[in-house]
């Protein structure tokens, strides 16, 4: 049995204090606490994720010394270790880069005040109804001296932040609609205008938290036990466990993988590896013309519109969440509706490496470099494994995932053959990708489990890192291009 803290009664003032660490008696102590009127919270979730077994997540930090060190540093800096970091701990190299960038955006010197940064985080997370991130930054906003009145709703915030609402909703759901006029309205407002440096900081924060909301839903992140939605005081329904067992997280039923399901998916990895091998051979034998490459992109972009994100009805945000943003009905829409056409965004004309990176670094020093390192880390991260297979070159698969996400946003790489995507990404995987990137609040455990069923959870977390960073870069490209056009 685990150790827990037991209070001692003070008869004179009827208060309680911690005296020592004792083993809890599973029967007498439970009755004693009931008599004393102490309410014991128990976790609603089973570990940091609804999708990944807790033992797999905790095993990583125990085995990997680097992960343990990163966790300790994060706790020392923030006074907490959130569940997002615990799940990202599968990939310590990436986690280190992510935490360094996020720390700089939120706490180091920059154009925006600390309480503005957290409020923008709230606005961005709320667009996807991500109560986990909203609650996290509500607490941080108050801790840095933010005005509680602003939390009543966006209409109670300063006009300068309210003006950011339009950019927030377009970036989150239809970034291809952004124009230099949107930026001009913010930069040339008669009152409460934004400086270029402030706007760059705000854009990076908005895209960071839109994409982090995708990761949060995509990995089934659960609130910590001390947070809203992370605990309950209701007695457990499992009679074989006492209250102290439940409070210590020992009262959860273990869920095992379905052996029949695994048998059905037998050979999935081998089939994917064989397709990668065949595609590589085709690359070596012949090269498609530019016209054919363009045709394949348009075909893949059109097909991506036919992928249904979820079977459920539209999610209606609660008042607690929707008060932080405007126009709740505004959501993701595919490129072509009723004959509308959105021009293809050619990376050869405006790219992160050649244009976006330098713009961010010039107006918000060091951040461009940090973002670039984080993008590269997610894109290039590999252990040369696929499920149980070792010494595998996964670069083709990683590129297909990244480029498919950008394809959904209308972004085209002239040197990529989009015919590879249908060979490497099956329909269940595409449904998961599109849901997580475009409507992450609709992501379900069934979707998570339906793709790559023979792969490790750590590999699925890696996929989520790719999706998160590819989405962030796509949003940034549209926003930074609009700012560049305003400046020229």
What does this structure look like?
The chain is globular and about 60 Å long. It has a two-stranded antiparallel ribbon with strand order 1-2. Strands 3-4 form a two-stranded antiparallel sheet. Strand 1 and strand 2 form a beta hairpin. The protein contains 23 helices and eight strands. Helix content is 56%, strand content 6%. It has 488 residues and is mainly α.
Indicate the low-confidence ranges by residue numbers: 1-26, 238-264
Distance between the termini: 67 Å
Helix/strand-derived category reads: mainly alpha
The mean pLDDT is 82
How many DSSP H or I helices? Answer: 23
The portion of residues forming beta strands comes to: 5-15%
The main pleated sheet reads as: 2 strands, antiparallel
Number of strands: 8
Strands ordered across the widest β-sheet = 1-2
Shape: globular
Core attributes:
488 residues; disordered N terminus; 8 strands; two-stranded antiparallel sheet; mainly alpha
Quick synopsis:
The protein is 56% helix and 6% strand. By secondary structure, it is mainly α.
Write the SSE topology.
Layout: E1 3-10, E2 15-23, H1 28-36, E3 42-43, H2 54-63, H3 65-78, H4 83-88, H5 92-107, H6 114-127, H7 131-143, H8 159-162, H9 165-173, H10 180-187, H11 196-218, E4 231-232, H12 243-247, H13 259-264, H14 268-285, H15 290-306, H16 319-322, E5 345-346, H17 352-363, H18 367-380, E6 385-386, E7 389-390, H19 395-408, E8 411-412, H20 419-424, H21 427-438, H22 445-450, H23 457-487
Parallel strand pairs: 5-8
Antiparallel strand pairs: 1-2, 3-4, 6-7
């Amino acid at each position: 049995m685990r150790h827990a803290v037991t209070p001692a009664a003070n008869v004179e003032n009827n208060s309680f204090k911690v005296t020592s660490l004792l083993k809890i008696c599973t029967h007498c102590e439970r009755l004693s606490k009931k008599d004393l009127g102490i309410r014991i919270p128990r976790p609603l979730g089973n570990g940091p994720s609804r999708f990944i077994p807790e033992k797999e997540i905790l095993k990583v930090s125990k085995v990997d010394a680097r992960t343990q060190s990163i966790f300790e540093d994060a706790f020392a800096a923030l006074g907490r270790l959130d569940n997002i970091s615990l799940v990202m701990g599968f990939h310590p190299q990436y986690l280190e880069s992510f935490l360094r960038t996020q720390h700089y955006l939120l706490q180091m010197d920059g154009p925006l005040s600390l309480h503005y940064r957290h409020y923008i985080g709230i606005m961005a997370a709320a667009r996807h109804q991500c109560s986990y991130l909203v609650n996290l930054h509500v607490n941080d906003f108050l801790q840095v001296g933010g005005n509680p009145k602003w939390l009543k709703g966006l209409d109670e915030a300063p006009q300068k932040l309210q003006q950011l609402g339009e950019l927030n909703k377009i970036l989150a759901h239809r970034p291809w609609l952004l124009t230099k006029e949107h930026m001009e309205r913010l930069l040339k407002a008669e009152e409460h205008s934004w400086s270029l440096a402030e706007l760059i900081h705000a854009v990076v924060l908005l895209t960071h938290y839109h994409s982090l909301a995708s990761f949060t839903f995509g990995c089934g992140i659960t609130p910590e036990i001390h947070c809203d939605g992370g605990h309950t005081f209701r007695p457990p329904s499992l009679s074989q466990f006492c209250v102290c067992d439940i409070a210590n997280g020992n009262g959860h039923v273990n869920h095992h993988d379905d052996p029949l399901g695994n048998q059905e998916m037998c050979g999935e990895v081998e089939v994917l590896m064989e397709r990668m091998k065949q595609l590589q051979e085709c690359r070596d034998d012949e090269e498609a013309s530019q016209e054919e490459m363009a045709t394949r992109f348009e075909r893949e972009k059109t097909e991506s519109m036919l992928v249904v994100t979820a079977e459920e009805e539209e999610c209606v945000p609660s008042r607690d969440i929707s008060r932080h943003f405007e126009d709740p009905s505004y959501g993701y829409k595919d490129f072509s509706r009723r004959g509308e056409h959105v021009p293809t965004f050619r990376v050869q004309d405006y790219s992160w490496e050649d244009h976006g990176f330098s713009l961010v670094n010039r107006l918000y020093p060091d951040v461009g470099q940090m973002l670039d390192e984080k993008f590269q880390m997610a894109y290039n991260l590999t252990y040369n494994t696929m499920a149980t297979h070792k010494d595998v070159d996964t670069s083709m698969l990683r590129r297909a995932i990244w480029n498919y996400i950008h394809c959904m946003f209308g972004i085209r790489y002239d040197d990529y053959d989009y015919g590879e995507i249908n060979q490497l990404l099956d329909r269940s995987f595409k449904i998961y990708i599109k849901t997580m990137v475009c409507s992450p609040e609709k992501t379900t455990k069934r979707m998570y489990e339906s793709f790559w069923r023979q792969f490790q959870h750590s590999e699925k977390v890696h996929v989520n890192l790719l999706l998160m960073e590819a989405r962030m870069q796509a949003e940034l490209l549209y926003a930074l291009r609009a700012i560049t056009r305003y400046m020229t």
